[in-house]
Amino acid sequence: MGVYKQIVVHYICRNVQVGHMIGLEADAGRKSRPRRILTVDGGGLKGAMPAAFIAEIEAVSGQRIVDNFDLIAGTSTGGIIALGLAAGLSGAEILDFYLTRGPRIFDQEPGEGVFAAMVATLRRAWRSMRQLRTSKYDADALRAELGVVFGDRRIGDALTRIVIPAYDSANGGLYVFKTAHHERLAVDWRVPMLDAALATAAAPTYLPAHSFYGAAHLLDGGVWANNPMGVAALEGATVLGWDMREARLLSLGCTSSITPARRVVGFRDVKWLIQTLFDGQDRLSHATAKLLLGHPHTNPHLIRVCPEVPAGHYALDDARRLEELVRMGRSNARALMPRINECFLLGGREPFVPCHPAKVQET
């Protein structure tokens, strides 16, 4: 946890420095709709739940999510969702990605009969054994499916501001993909959305690190920011210079579960320890957002949606319960629709005009 706190301090200091060096985004004297932020957690195929939530909100309201949020942040599977929304995909199209392409990505296309079930069981067992020495999956299937979705779109084509955390394992530091929503952010707008998606989703032991021109061995942003609501709130407060007391934040998780306490922890408890570390990240990220926006008891515009489920019931690479996740997402969306309407669906936002300082010189 000490390492994670150092990362947060590093992130704050770096962004505060950027804001003061270049000048914060000017909002003075301009009355407009409140700044709204959407964040989506990591969680592999469990991303079907927030994708279904978004699809249901769009279907009921008749409004696109991307048209109602000034900043969208996502990590890992949440990064894919954030990039998809910023690329102009509807919630329904993103949900279809999980339902139709998700099983192919994780080598779990459904089959009929006893023989297909046996083959699927053997495949899962073989991949679990493979995971002991290398990544459980190759990135080829994920690259192919994401390539169909994103095509040749770049981060510079995003319709709103985005923040996509990754981790630079080659240099031991943070790597955050961002739109050019500040004059100093003059590089990432050139990066293909495909590369950003592959990097933020490169979960250790599940997928290999991702490299592309200008960066090497990038890992899943969940290494330090699986829940990106703190990162997004910091971005708004520091780089963008927003008055966070007036901001609104909707955070979508990919389910949570209670991790029972243990007095003694050994090597056999590695899974428990990893989950505890993720829980610690989640709590700190949530607390950071609360500090910047105000506690939900005093600020009703900070909403966290992350249903609690039995421990181990869902896995990030298990396609067998996708329909359950979809039903959960739709149900939560319907229950929260009045609050979502009141807080976030305000009939559009101010246009996002990115800074592309190098674009005119591009060859």
Description of the molecule:
44% of the residues lie in helices and 11% in strands. The protein has 11 helices and 8 strands. The longest helix has 24 residues, at 270-293. The chain has 363 residues and is of the alpha/beta class. The termini are far apart. The model is unreliable at 1-5 and 16-30 (pLDDT under 50). The radius of gyration is 20 Å and the shape is globular. Strands 1, 2, 3, 4, 5, 6, 7 and 8 form an 8-stranded mixed β-sheet that branches.
SSE layout and pairing:
Layout: H1 2-22, E1 36-40, H2 48-61, E2 71-74, H3 77-86, H4 91-105, H5 113-130, H6 140-150, E3 161-168, E4 173-178, H7 193-200, E5 210-212, E6 215-220, H8 222-225, H9 229-239, E7 248-252, H10 270-293, E8 302-305, H11 322-343
Parallel strand pairs: 1-2, 1-7, 2-3, 7-8
Antiparallel strand pairs: 3-4, 3-6, 5-6
Helix pairs in contact: 1-9, 2-4, 2-11, 3-7, 4-6, 6-7, 9-10
Topology pattern, helix = H, strand = E: HEHEHHHHEEHEEHHEHEH
- End-to-end span in angstroms? 45 Å
Mean pLDDT across every amino acid position = 86
Number of helices: 11
Number of strands: 8
What structural class results from the helix and strand content?
Answer: alpha/beta
> What's the Cα radius of gyration?
20 Å
Strand content: 5-15%
**Structural shape:** globular
Oligomerization = single chain
Helix content: 40-55%
What does the main sheet amount to? Answer: 8 strands, mixed
Low-confidence stretches: 1-5, 16-30
Active site: 76 (nucleophile), 220 (proton acceptor)
InterPro entries: Acyl_Trfase/lysoPLipase (IPR016035), PNPLA_dom (IPR002641)
Domain PNPLA: 38-233
Motif (DGA/G): 220-222
